[in-house]
Amino acid sequence: MKPVTVTQVNEYIAKKLRDDMNLRRLPVEGEVSGFSRSGRHYYFTLKDAESQIRCAIWGQNASGIDMSLVENGKKIVAICDISPYPKNGTYSLSVRYVEAVGEGDLAAEFRRIKEKLEKEGLFDKKYKKPIPVFPYRVGVITSSTGAAIEDIRKIITSKNDFTDILIFPTAVQGIGAVNSICENIRAANSLSRNGIKIDTLIVGRGGGSPEDLAAFNDEDVARAIFESEIPVISAVGHEIDFSISDFVADARAETPTAAADMAVMDTFELQEEIERSKRILLTSIDQKITAERRVLDSASALLLTGMRSKLAEASAAVDKAVIMLRENDPRRVLSRGYAAVTDRNGRIVPNAAGIRVGEEYDIVMSDGRFSAEVTDVDLN
Fewer CB under 10 Å: which end of the chain, C or N? Predict the structure, then answer.
């Protein structure tokens, strides 16, 4: 068995950890210890009675966290993702949100729904539908007034002049958001079944607090996405945000902008590629024609040379035959003083044994003929 390198082992383990959905948006309860700060980033250890784990709050996440909760000796619930370090074979937790112990209702509900739906198989990869490569129409389920829809419009129209965008104005937070999202997912599927074909659905919104994103962690929304016949891209919040919708959708985009980029092909690049391929093809055809013409010219010249050689050989053979005919022409023999003897039926008498005394024969010479009666035959 071929050995692997340490780097390969660490990278393999890191990938396994990153791909594990159970290690994303994981609520971890523990006591803060060893708190420190470096620039915009914060580092601490989260521990309980038996073990501990290193944690980090990166600068881009810190603005959304009440840092007064993160003090040595305080118990907190940290909503975090696994963060492996392949270089040294270690891992830590990347903290996205912090709640004081006893204030984790959202995290508890998130965990309850996630575990329930996961047990039912709604996150199973076998149910994931492929996202069409070249959609004719993309449906967008989001607020019609938020920044997300403008970002989606901008990205799709800047890279694609073929795909239509169909917007379903949707309440994405607050009272009625869950019903609005579910109803529009079903409405999109109904339209698609009844003549207005929708190839891909983008379901989501821009960033916000956990309370703002709560609708996309709702069980009904998750089931509506799972039941959608149209492939769904979930695009909720920013890169750091994970929702139940992300787990159940056919694909997850880090942001609405990323969802738009994922949903459509760059037709302008495709057109350029087609033109490049066309030029390459035409050049190849020209080169092939030139090469074949050379082969044809060479074959024609070879054939012509062969024909001339055969004609020369045939002409020489004819000349030889003519000479042979001339040399063997009986008249030529007769011209040298010889004569041919024929009987009365015109048949050649080849030798004297065929001559009969008293019979009359014709004697043929080069310049004429005469008849003679045989009076005597003398055989050698």
Answer: N
Q: Which residue blocks in the chain are alpha helix, DSSP H? A: 6-19, 59-62, 105-120, 147-159, 177-193, 219-227, 244-248, 256-263, 267-327, 330-334
Q: Give the pLDDT confidence of 249-269 residue by residue, as tens digits.
A: 999 998 999 999 999 988 888
C-alpha–C-alpha distance, residues 233 and 154, integer Å: 17
Burial call 63-84: b when 16+ CB within 10 Å, e when fewer: ebbeeebbeeebebbbbbbbbb
| pLDDT score of 32 more than 90 | no
Bridge partners of 28?
A: 78
- How far apart (Å, rounded) are the C-alpha atoms in residues 64 and 208? 9
What is the distance between the alpha carbons of residues 184 and 146, in angstroms, rounded to a whole number? 17
Superfamily of domain 131-265: Succinyl-CoA synthetase domains (3.40.50.261)
Query: pLDDT tens for residues 297-318?
Result: 888 888 888 898 888 888 888 8
Question: In the block, which residue shows the tokens 């305080």?
Answer: 74
Cβ-count burial of 255 within 10 angstroms (0-12 exposed, 13-18 middle, 19+ buried)? buried
**Helices (H) then strands (E): counts for the chain:** 10, 13
In terms of Cα–Cα distance, which of 202, 230, 196, 231 is closest to 143?
Answer: 202
Helices (H), 78-176: 105-120, 147-159
Pick the CATH number of 6-103 from 2.40.50.140, 3.60.21.10, 2.30.38.10, 3.30.430.20: 2.40.50.140
CB 81 within 8 A of CB 61: no
Which residues touch 147 (CB under 8 Å, ≥6 apart)? Answer: 206
Query: Coil, helix or strand for 235?
Result: strand
Bridging pattern class, strands 75-85 and 26-38: antiparallel
Here the tokens at position 68 are: 């007064």
